[in-house]
């Protein structure tokens, strides 16, 4: 190579980056390659043997896997759009200079994503218990006539998880939109006022297109996050150390991987195969989203 | 359309920014607001546009009071300093966007947009996005977008200040040509007095939220009402010399021992400021000053000499602009002559003594 560096300088450079490279290799690249290798292994516990595509065949025959996949995709398809739209609406509202108490509201909406997971799970569990404050409030307001079984009904348990992750991550996405909005030249909106552009068109024809790149970015991030959904379904809809309740209604791919590895008789090879399913889903969906957002 | 401002005021909380402006702009006039940065030019323009609320007074456009009328319905179009083009739309979409909301059908929009594009030489750029245009082209698109709406009044807020010097001169001429073609009323804000002088039918000099003087460019140049206007209009700047009336003559405080003839009757002992434009020294006359040249700037067609009463005397040097000055050298003694009637006298309050 003709980099103009002497051999000595080159060696010095490698010496400086070596510790980081070793750590990266040891804790990132090696496990990734190892999990790829493992995904072709079958067997329980530490005694496994090469099984070729046996694990992939097992996927197609495994009702629990298909159920977890269905749950995960349901969460994804419903929660991500709701959260993105909500975050956009909050961002546009909080960007209005005439709104009072903007700083406080921004902080309040952002705070959930930095709240401790344990505190948040305990609070949600208690708030959404059969006799928790949410049911009490809804009963008091005569919106419902009997308590909603948030934890014990397959449908409501999914709703609860969607509520919880939306609560936790909307503010995080909103901050990206707020930053992008603040970078927009205010004269563009003044021009729109003079042009007589109505508020709806201002939002859909000016704001949304100008935020397109950030929206894409947050959508990809949220998709990845939701495909890896684990925390909430292993804490809020869990009891006696078993998550995904009731009756696996909130079982996700990540939780299933966890169960396969740490709760059932360990099946490392099969668990590795499922984790590669998540990787492939992330890749496919991100690619599709990039294509959709590309300029015509 | 005429535009009339009647004791127009604007306050942000307790801070008054526009302190009562009266102004009459006749239909088709090119009116330029000029003044130092922060004097309230943009605020005044934005009040006319409907982007700032009016605290007090009346705004009348075409005989109709507009104080509370929405910006979209005032019959105005505005060109912003940053151009404010919609970045995700092509030139064509940018120019036609407002017309969609005015209820024009696509055929009419296309016709209007194409006509404006032809006027401004944008026809080849219609499918580009703003980021693929040069500064001058963006400027043209912003102007085109304004023209398409066929406004009764054009508003420009420092439209040329983001362009380089050469392009600025070029666009200045284009805007002047456009005004001759369209004959629409234009209100144009700038801090650059050269732009004001070259473009305006009427210049409004603002300072600190008040109008200092209104008039045609040459009226302000030849006959300023006060020291501020005299100093602001004209480049290079007017020379100001302190003087006292003594024995029917003007004794120059800054040039000890030198005097100028007094051309108007003033009480003995009055303290005045004498204003001398650098270019009055080009012609001969009965008044004269004895100076020493400090610095010479050769511009080709003209020479600027900066000169003092003597090499060892402090104070602001006088600027002398002459056409026959190629042989001037620093350190050289210079005797300049001029017509004393061209000296302007200002009182202690800065107002012109006539
Ligand atoms: N939103 C605002 N709040 C308070 N003061 C303002 C606001 N906008 C402008 N000003 C003040 O008004 C004065 C005039 O501003 P502006 O019209 O922008 O001046 P310019 O002549 O440079 O265009 C300035 O002193 C500025 O600080
Ligand atoms: Mg300004």
Automatic annotation (TrEMBL), chain B:
Residues 3-233 form the ABC transporter domain. One of its GO terms (cellular component) is ATP-binding cassette (ABC) transporter complex, substrate-binding subunit-containing. Pfam families: ABC_tran (PF00005), OB_MalK (PF17912). GO terms for molecular function: ABC-type maltose transporter activity; ATP binding; ATP hydrolysis activity. InterPro entries: AAA+_ATPase (IPR003593), ABC_transporter-like_ATP-bd (IPR003439), ABC_transporter-like_CS (IPR017871), ABC_transpr_MalK-like (IPR015855), ABC_transpr_MalK/UgpC-like (IPR047641), Mo/tungstate-bd_C_term_dom (IPR008995), NA-bd_OB-fold (IPR012340), OB_MalK-like (IPR040582). SMART domains: AAA. Keywords: ATP-binding, Cell inner membrane, Cell membrane, Membrane, Nucleotide-binding, Transport. Belongs to the ABC transporter superfamily. NCBIfam families: PRK11650.1. This is Sn-glycerol-3-phosphate ABC transporter ATP-binding protein UgpC. The gene is ugpC.
């Amino acid at each position: 190579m003709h980099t103009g560096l002497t051999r000595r300088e080159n060696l010095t450079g490698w010496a400086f980056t070596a510790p980081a490279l070793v750590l990266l290799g040891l804790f990132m690249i090696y496990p990734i390659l190892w999990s790829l290798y493992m995904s072709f292994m079958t067997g329980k516990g530490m005694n496994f043997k090469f099984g070729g595509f046996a694990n992939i065949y097992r996927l197609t025959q495994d009702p629990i896997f298909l159920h977890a996949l269905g749950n995960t995709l349901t969460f994804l398809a419903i929660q991500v759009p709701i959260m993105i739209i909500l975050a956009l609406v909050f961002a546009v509202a909080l960007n209005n200079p005439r709104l009072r108490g903007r700083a406080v509201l921004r902080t309040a909406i952002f705070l959930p994503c930095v709240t401790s997971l344990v505190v948040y799970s305990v609070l949600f569990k208690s708030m959404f218990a059969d006799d928790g404050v949410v049911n009490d409030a809804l009963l008091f307001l005569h919106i419902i006539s009997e308590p909603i079984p948030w934890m014990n009904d397959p449908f409501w348990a999914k709703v609860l998880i969607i509520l919880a992750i939306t609560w936790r991550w909307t503010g995080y996405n909103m901050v990206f939109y707020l930053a992008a909005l603040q970078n927009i030249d205010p004269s563009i909106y003044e021009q729109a006022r003079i042009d007589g552009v109505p508020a709806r068109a201002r939002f859909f024809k000016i704001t949304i297109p100008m935020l397109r790149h950030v929206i894409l970015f947050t959508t990809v991030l949220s998709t990845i996050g939701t495909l890896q959904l684990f925390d909430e379904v292993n804490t809020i809809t869990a009891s006696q150390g078993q998550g995904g309740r009731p009756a696996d209604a909130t079982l996700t791919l990540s939780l299933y991987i966890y169960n396969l590895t740490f709760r059932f008789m360990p099946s490392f090879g099969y668990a590795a195969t499922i984790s590669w399913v998540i990787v492939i889903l992330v890749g496919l969906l991100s690619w599709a989203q990039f294509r959709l957002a590309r300029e015509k | 359309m005429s535009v009339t401002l009647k004791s127009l005021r604007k306050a942000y909380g307790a801070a008054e920014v526009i302190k009562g402006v009266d102004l009459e702009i006749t239909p088709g006039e090119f009116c330029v607001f000029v003044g130092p940065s922060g004097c309230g030019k943009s605020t005044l323009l934005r009040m006319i546009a409907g982007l700032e609320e009016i605290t007090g007074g009346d705004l009348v456009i075409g005989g109709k009071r507009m104080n509370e009328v929405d910006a979209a319905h005032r019959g105005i179009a505005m060109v912003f300093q940053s151009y404010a083009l919609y970045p995700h739309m092509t030139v064509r979409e940018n120019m036609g966007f407002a017309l969609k909301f005015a209820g024009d059908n696509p055929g009419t929009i296309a016709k209007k947009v194409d006509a404006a594009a032809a006027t401004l030489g944008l026809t080849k750029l219609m499918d580009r996005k703003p980021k693929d245009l040069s500064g001058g082209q963006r400027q043209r698109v912003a102007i085109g977008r304004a023209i398409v709406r066929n406004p009764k009044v054009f508003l420009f807020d420092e439209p040329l200040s983001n362009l380089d010097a050469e392009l600025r001169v070029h666009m200045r001429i284009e805007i002047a040509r456009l005004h001759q073609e369209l004959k629409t009323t234009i209100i144009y804000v700038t801090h650059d007095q050269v732009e004001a002088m070259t473009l305006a039918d009427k210049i409004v000099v603002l300072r600190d939220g008040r109008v200092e003087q209104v008039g045609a460019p040459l009226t302000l140049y030849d006959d300023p009402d006060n020291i501020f206007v005299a100093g602001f209009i004209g480049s290079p700047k007017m020379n100001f010399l302190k003087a006292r009336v003594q024995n029917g003559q003007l004794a120059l405080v800054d040039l000890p021992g030198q005097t100028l003839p007094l051309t108007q009757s003033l009480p003995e002992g009055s303290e005045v400021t004498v204003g001398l434009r650098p270019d009055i020294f080009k012609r001969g006359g009965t008044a004269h000053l004895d100076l020493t040249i400090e610095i010479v700037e050769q511009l080709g067609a003209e020479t600027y000499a900066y000169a003092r009463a003597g090499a060892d005397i402090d104070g602001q040097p006088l600027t002398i602009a002459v056409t026959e000055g190629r042989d001037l050298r620093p350190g050289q003694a210079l005797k300049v002559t001029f017509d004393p009637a061209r000296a302007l006298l200002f009182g202690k309050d800065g107002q012109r003594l006539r």
